[in-house]
Write a structure and sequence with these properties.
Structural class: alpha/beta
CATH superfamily of the largest domain: P-loop containing nucleotide triphosphate hydrolases
Number of helices: 33
Radius of gyration: 35 Å
Number of domains: 6
Bound molecules: adenosine-5'-triphosphate
Largest sheet: 7 strands, mixed
CATH class of the largest domain: Alpha Beta
Shape: elongated
Number of strands: 27
Distance between the termini: 94 Å
Oligomer: single chain
Helix content: 40-55%
CATH architecture of the largest domain: 3-Layer(aba) Sandwich
Length: 903
């Protein structure tokens, strides 16, 4: 694309001079667009470059490491400027988006020749065609193919305080919404792992609320509150999905509708008025997913490690999907395990089917290897950002869907396919092979990325196109012939026929031989047009007419190709519902076959998840530690049982030396819960447990200094969350509670926590500690069992057997571990002396007979006799009370008090 010379000169006030304080027409155009897109870097198209000016240029130059220059002056000041070539713009965009910037892309909307017709100083029409923000990407090279790219919208109803979140992946068309509350908002957001969050500016003005959202690390984008108006949102949703009532999709609450509406509004703004294809909104019910708070999610390293890497996470071990969409499906299931035993069993049936039939699995996976990323291709076609390769993706997707349906259907035994697979198979069998064949007939073998330059329609598809193409191409041969002829006539060997936009086709000869064309007999044929540095240029009437024919044929061919492209895109768009269902079905199929592959390779078994409160795992293993040991051929993982069934010994107190494997054991059982409830087989010989509603952990040791919290404070905040929220259905793992403070403070807190979990929360819990004193509690608390890690002492060495057995550890062997870690011998010897002294004192010191002596424990039975007022109060979550509820509660408490006092 070219840019007019006059425009370049007039960015500032001519090159370098300051002739006026008025903005030039181009600069005025820039300033208007800049003002209309606040908060975004403006990529201003100038010919083959996107140029940035003023502060944008300074920011971009330093972010991208490109040269900052200046171009002209504005209001007497130099205009800072930098630019990126259009053909390489994606890489720069990606970098800027990763750094949290937003970019407004402004294009030239007409050919500069058009502008010239309006006068030599006329400015080319330009407008912002799109805002590129982290949550609204569609291009493959800007997206991570293996993870979702969620844009999340958050709303809160001022009157009721109800919060709703809506989320969408515009690259795949997924759209969902749910109602949540302030105390689970963080957990819900973390599981979605948003790339960008939008909310009303009024809401983001509340520091407490912003802090909650900030924890996700995603950039926050404020929108005017009116964009979330629920009535307008309802209208927009009905319009978008072409329905009279939204009830058909679920009974949405007001905040949910407003969250969805705000989200669509924002997408519309960023896509400059063109809404991508969205599937109808799916309403998620809060209780349908296993809630995992952000700290637990991070500490269990589900989708990435604490260091932020995918490698080493649970996902990296279980994701053996063939397609990117299959990987996204596994990642999403891992982040959102289910709570309904029936739905879990259905998913497990899919996996079991593929485990039982390895040849089906192999065939399906081979077919999936040829399955393109249909979801994302479709997403681009829907917003007119697709290219020929996206159409090819649709063609291949439709073909493969047919093969998959055929192979799956043929595998059904007498009892048929399991419910989910049957559904997948049915969806895939709806594939539109006519469309696939038509696309195949039209598309060439080698396809360019963009439709704009043509060259993607197969020879033989359109007679008209073929004719114009051969005219265009044959004339090229004619030109070559003409060049030879002119060269012969003139006797100039170096004569060339060339082309440029100004002269069209022309003859160029070295200035020294030009006289040969200007002799009397040749002057009629060769018409002089231009003299350049060392050459002269001529045209002939023959060349001029050819030029026109070639240009016309090439233009016609391109126009025909564009027409074919648009027709095919429209046909694809008309089938988008089907295509998006096929994309979804093949992603689920891939996930099921991949989980089966992992199950077989890693010897996982099908878990049983039911409505009980039991928890029995036999021969459980830690999936990631086991995989790491295998990779390094560093010995085998020692499998361990775990039995914390609700009505029996639902609490396990685990003591044992450092490095013996306590943390590993705690985590592996939590991971088994997550894997089972996401619908995967689990690393165990057998696993059977009652569905878990919420998973808690207190295992990390990181501080959160940014939020003014020390390590111990973080530990206590997390413990408080567990004690306040865990139910009988929850599963809790606690690792070394209280270690961050003075010994007796820590011990007392651990002690009281254990009692509370036992008597109040009544959840299933694993509790690892170095406070051996706590083991005395087993004698008093009927649902608490002691377990320990077995070690062997041999020739002054400790051998960790990593085996969990019933009983109590006698020592921590901390000094031994310190020695292995390389502490200086002098320190080790001294520590040994101090330990011996302390142990001698301790035998008659304050810790003996602790169970009887400790006031805290003495207070425990009293806790069972808590008053009605205390009982009522302990169940109250103050943050959830409205002023009216609080007043009613005070009256209620007064009456409870009055009822207790003797009249
Ligand atoms: N069951 C097992 N089989 C094989 N190796 C194991 C097993 N459990 C743990 N390990 C190995 O032992 C190492 C230490 O385990 P872990 O961190 O769980 O110990 P710990 O008892 O929690 O230690 P500390 O009390 O010092 O925190 C792990 O990194 C792992 O490699």
């Amino acid at each position: 694309m070219e840019v007019t010379v006059s425009e370049l000169d007039h960015i500032g006030e001519g090159a370098g001079e300051d002739t006026s304080s008025r903005a030039t027409p181009v600069m005025a155009q820039f300033l208007v667009l800049k003002q209309a897109n606040p908060g975004s870097l403006l990529f201003f198209r100038m010919g083959d470059f996107y140029e940035l000016f003023f502060e944008d240029a300074e920011i971009a130059a330093s972010a991208l490491g490109i040269t900052l220059t200046k171009r002209g002056k504005h209001m007497g000041e130099d205009i800072p400027m930098c630019g990126v070539p259009v053909h390489a713009a994606d890489a720069y965009l990606q970098k800027l988006i990763r750094m949290g910037h937003r970019v407004a892309v402004c294009e030239q909307l007409e050919d500069p020749a058009e502008a010239r017709k309006r006068g030599s100083k006329a400015v080319v029409k330009r407008d912002v065609v799109r805002l590129v923000t982290p949550g609204t990407l569609t291009e493959d090279n800007l997206l991570d193919s293996r993870s979702h790219n969620f844009l999340v919208s958050v709303t809160r109803n001022k009157a009721t305080g109800d919060i709703a979140i809506a989320w969408a992946d515009i690259s795949s068309g997924e759209l969902a919404v749910m109602q949540t509350s302030s105390n689970r908002l963080s957990a819900d957001l973390t599981r979605l792992d948003p790339r960008e969050i939008i909310a009303a500016d009024t809401l983001l003005a509340e520091p407490e609320f912003t802090e909650l959202l900030d924890r996700t690390g995603a950039p926050l984008t404020p929108l005017p509150a009116v964009k979330f108006d629920s009535l307008a949102a309802e209208r927009r949703l009905k319009e978008q999905f072409d329905v009279k009532a939204l009830e058909g999709f679920g009974s949405f609450t007001r905040p949910e509708i407003s969250a969805l509406g705000g989200l669509l509004e924002y997408v519309l703004i960023t896509q400059a008025g063109k809404l991508p294809h969205f599937r109808p909104p799916r309403r998620e019910v809060a209780s349908s997913v296993l809630l995992i708070d952000p700290a637990t999610r991070a500490n269990l390293e589900l989708t990435r490690t604490l260091g932020g890497e995918r490698r080493g996470s649970l996902l990296s071990v279980i994701d053996d999907a063939i397609t990117a969409a299959g990987s996204r499906c596994i990642a999403s299931r891992l982040s959102n395990p289910l709570c309904d035993p029936y739905a879990i069993a259905n998913r497990l049936d899919e996996v079991a089917h593929f485990v039982a039939d390895p040849s089906l699995r192999e065939d399906v996976r081979k077919l999936l290897a040829r399955m393109p990323d249909l979801e994302r291709a479709l997403g681009r076609v829907a917003i007119s950002r697709g290219g020929p390769r996206d159409l090819a993706a649709v063609r291949d997707g439709l073909m493969i869907a047919g093969h998959l349906a055929h192979r799956l259907g043929g595998s059904a035994t007498i009892s048929g396919l399991p419910e989910n697979l049957d559904h997948i198979c049915e969806t895939l069998s709806w594939t539109d092979l006519d469309l696939a064949r038509d696309l195949d007939a039209a598309l060439d073998h080698e396809l360019p990325a963009f439709a704009r330059d043509g060259g993607f329609v197969k020879q033989g598809y359109s007679v008209d196109l073929d004719e114009n193409r051969s005219l265009r191409d044959e004339t090229r041969h004619v030109i070559a012939g003409l060049q030879a002829r002119y060269s012969e006539i003139s006797g100039i060997k170096s004569l060339k026929v060339k082309h440029n936009n100004v002269l069209g086709y022309f003859i160029e000869v070295p200035a020294t031989s030009a006289s040969l064309l200007q002799t009397a007999d040749k002057a009629g044929l060769f018409i002089h047009r231009q003299t350049v540095a060392s050459a002269m240029r001529f045209v002939t009437t023959e060349l001029a007419s050819l030029d026109q024919r070639i240009a016309a044929a090439a233009e016609k061919a391109l126009a025909l190709e564009q027409e074919i492209f648009s027709t095919l895109c429209a046909r694809v768009d008309a089938r988008r519902d089907l295509l998006s269902k096929i994309a979804d079905a093949s992603a689920r199929l891939d996930a099921a076959a991949a989980l089966a592959e992992v199950a077989e390779r890693r010897r996982y078994v099908r878990p049983r998840v039911d409505g009980s409160t039991g928890f029995t795992v036999r021969g459980g293993r830690h999936p990631v530690v086991e995989a790491a040991l295998q990779d390094k051929a560093a010995g085998s993982f020692v499998a361990n049982d775990c039995d914390v069934s609700g009505d029996a010994r639902r609490l396990c107190l685990l003591t044992g030396p450092n490095m013996a494997g306590k943390s590993t054991y705690l985590r592996q059982n939590a991971l088994i819960v997550i894997l089972a409830q996401m619908g995967s087989f689990v690393p165990a010989a057998d696993a059977h447990f009652g569905v878990v509603d919420r998973l808690f952990s207190r295992v990390g040791a990181a501080d959160d200094l940014a939020r003014g919290r020390s390590t111990f404070m973080v530990e206590m905040v997390e413990t408080a969350a567990i004690l306040n929220q865990a139910t009988e259905r929850s599963f809790v793992i606690l690792d070394e509670i209280g270690r961050g403070t003075a010994t007796y403070d820590g011990l007392s807190i651990a002690w009281a926590t254990l009692e509370h979990l036992h008597g109040e929360n009544r959840c299933r819990a694993l509790f690892a500690t170095h406070y051996h004193e706590l083991t005395q509690l087993a004698a008093k608390l009927p649902h608490l069992a002691n377990a320990t890690m077995k070690v062997k002492e041999w020739q002054d060495q400790i051998i960790f057997l990593h085996e969990v057995v019933a009983g109590v550890a006698d020592r921590s062997y901390g000094i031994h571990v310190a020695q292995i870690a390389g502490l200086p011998a002098a320190v080790i010897n001294r520590a040994q002396q101090v330990l011996e002294r302390l142990e001698r004192q301790g035998a008659k010191g304050p810790t003996s007979g602790l169970a009887e002596d400790l006031p805290l424990f003495a207070a425990a039975p009293a806790a069972k006799r808590e008053s009605a007022v205390e009982k009522r109060l302990s169940g109250v979550v103050a943050d959830e009370l409205s002023p009216r509820d609080a007043l009613a509660l005070v009256y209620e408490l007064k009456s409870l008090l009055a009822a207790r006092q003797p009249s």
